[in-house]
Amino acid sequence: MNILLFVVIARILCGSAPASAQKHGSLSCLKATADIRLPGRTTRYDYQSIDEQRRLLFIAHLGDNAVTVFDLKSQKVIKDITGIPSPHGILAVPEAGRVFVSATGVDKIYVVDEKSLKVDGKVEAGLFPDGIGYDPGTNRIFVSDEFGKTVSVIDVSALRLVRKIEIGGVVGNTHYDPVSRQIFTTDESANELVEINPSTMAITLRIKLPGCEGAHGFMIGKEPHEAYVTGEDNASLVVVDLANSRVTQRFSVGKEPDVLAIDSELHLLYLSSESGVVSMFRITKHGLSELCHGKLWAYAHTVSVDRVTHKVYFPLQDRNGAPDLRIMIPNLH
What residues are paired with 48 via a beta bridge? Predict the structure, then answer.
């Protein structure tokens, strides 16, 4: 029997606490395999993005105005791309051969060529650009203008701002959903998940998120077709059934939850928080099941996962006086 399935069945048979009360206090289901020194100062990191084709991990080193490029094959840093003012959101688009970085210091999107690993373009965005989603059908990126309360639509080929979509409140992250082929973002002020048609650039649906306050980070899973949305203000994670547009589960997680990552091959969801607490969940047909929950390190609020090797990456801004990339793997034996 698959060991991950065994763990889930064992939890069901033995009984478990209500979802909102589950707390395990340790990261027993994650095992550290390496700690790699990162370049730069002990300053804040933000989002990450993996190009699975080129086997590259791009890390936004917000506090150092840089993007660190990590080779997933050699497990080494191959470049630090400097001069990008306050990089927050980051998204590698392999089909375009480019990496898009939201530079909140100048309210622009910086474009990095994946071959040269140099900045080869810039385009205007809205006020405090953050999360980025890419729609392959229209070849457009959709950028969360967090404080501008809009989503900026940018043509990837022309590197031109096409439109700003009014969201209404503070805007959280933005992602493309390959199942519905729609763009989703969050309205933090209204605590709603917002669906946008990438072709018409019109809002087509708003989903209320009861139990989620300060809806900011989220990820979308294919099987089952669900959204996992964090509530920054009440340390929560809610599960949204996208077929029926309703919240089906709620979990209590670390204070100020932020970035999520999905390993679709192993059916695992990772959630990191500003408080340094990391939660790990098993994705099942019947919802999420929490596997472990505990403190990793101070400000361990950003996570990414390599679906090829199943390694999980946590950039830590200050581990024993230096920035560090903690690499871990699932430990479910």
Answer: 59
